[in-house]
Amino acid sequence: MARAKTPMANADIEIPADIAHALVDPTAYASERIHEAYAWLRANNPLGLAKVEGFDPFWVVTRHADILEVSRQNDLFHSGDRATTLTSQAADAKVREMTGGSPHLVRSLVQMDAPDHPKYRALTQAWFMPQNIRKLEDRIRQIARASVERMAATGGSCDFVREVALHYPLHVVMDILGVPEADEPRMLMLTQELFGAADPELSREARQPQTQDLGAIQAVIADFYNYFGKISADRRAHPAGDLATVIANSRIDGEPISEFEALSYYVIVATAGHDTTSSTTAGAMWALAQHPDQLAWVKADLARIPQLIEEAIRWTTPVKTFMRSAVEDTELAGRRIARGDWLMLCYASGNRDEAVFDEPQRFRAERTPNRQLAFGYGAHLCLGQHLARMEMRILYEELLPRLKSVALAGEGRMSLSTFVNGPKTLPIRFEMA
Predict the structure, then answer these.
(1) Can you tell me the distance from the alpha carbon of 378 to that of 365, in angstroms, rounded to the nearest whole number?
(2) Does domain 3-432 have CATH number 3.20.20.140?
(3) pTM given for the model
(4) Where are the domains of the chain?
(5) Is the pLDDT of residue 10 over 70?
C-alpha cells in the first residue's frame, strides 16, 4: 500500500481526537453530537483524516459535493475491496478469519463493484422501477389504511415507531418478497439485531455500545440464511409471482447464482427494504409533532406530501455512513488519497451542508429544490428508492386527512449505530378526526 505518497502524518489534515472519536461512537449518532461534529468538520476540515486507536485511519468526507464526487467514480472508489461499513481492526481481522480472507460476512449489492454489481443489480431492478411498483399501489394503500386504523385504535396516544413505523414498511416488503405474514415478527427482530448490533436494547446480546460482538452478528446472519435457504429451495421447486422466486432462479452469465450470493440478496432486501423506510416514516412524524406549522402547511394541500417526504428523507438520513476505498493514488478536494486508503462517506453531513441547503438545521417541508443524497448516488443509488417514497406518500395520504393534531408525549430516542440508525421510540399524543 503506497502510504508514503499520502501526507497522512501532517497535523493539519488530522481531525481533532474528540471529533474523530465521535465518528466511531454509536452513541454519538443517537444525539445531536454527530451533527455538531459534522458541522465542525464542514467548516474546518471537510476532508480530514481520522485516527482512532483500534481502527485503520480513514478519510472523512463531509461535504455534499465531495460525497457525490466519490459516488460517481465507482471505478476509482470501490465498495468491495475493504469493509463497506466502519469496522475495527480486530473485527476486520476476525471477519477475514471467518471468511477465508474476505472482509464481508455477506456479499450483496452493497459489497459489489463492477463487473458483478451491474449484473446482480439487473436481476431485480425491473421490480423496483416506477412503472412496476405503481401496480402495487392499491395493495400498499390497503396496508396503509390498516396501519392508520391501528394507530387510531390506540385512543390518542402511542409509540409511533412501535405501532406504525416498524410494521407498515415491513409488511409491504415482506409481501413483495413472499415472506408469510406470520414470519414478519421474526424478520423484524433479525433486522434490528443486525442493524442494531451496537445498541444494547436492540442487539442479540447486551453489550457496551462501542463493542462489536461478531459472534452474535454471525449468528443473526446464519438465522437469515437458514430461513431464506428454505424459501429459496421452495421457490425453485414451486415458482411464484414474488421477488423470492426471481432471486432463487436468477442466473448470471448463464449460470445460477451461488447459494451464498442468493442468500445475501435475500438479506439485503429483507433488511434495508423496510428498516430505512421505517426510520424516515418515524422521522417525518417526529418533525410534525415538533412543528405544528409544518403539519398545518401540508394538511392545507395534500399535494405537498411528496415535499414532506423528501424533507423527512433529508432530515433523518437513515444510512449515516458507507465506506469506500481508493483503487489507485488520486486527489480529492485538494487532498492526496493513496491507493488502498479508506474513506467514510457521511451522508447525514452532506444532507446538512450549508453550501447546498438553506437553513439546513431546520426541518422545512416546503424546501425546494431538495438535493438530498440519502439514497446515495451513481451506480449504488438505492434500488428501492421509488418504492420507499411511494410507501411513505401513501401512508401520509391516508393519515394526514384524519390527523387533527399531534405532539410529543415523551422523549423520542434514536438507535445507536454508526451505519444505519433512526428513531427507536417516539411517544406521541394525537387527535384524529
Answers:
(1) 26
(2) no
(3) 0.94
(4) 3-432
(5) no
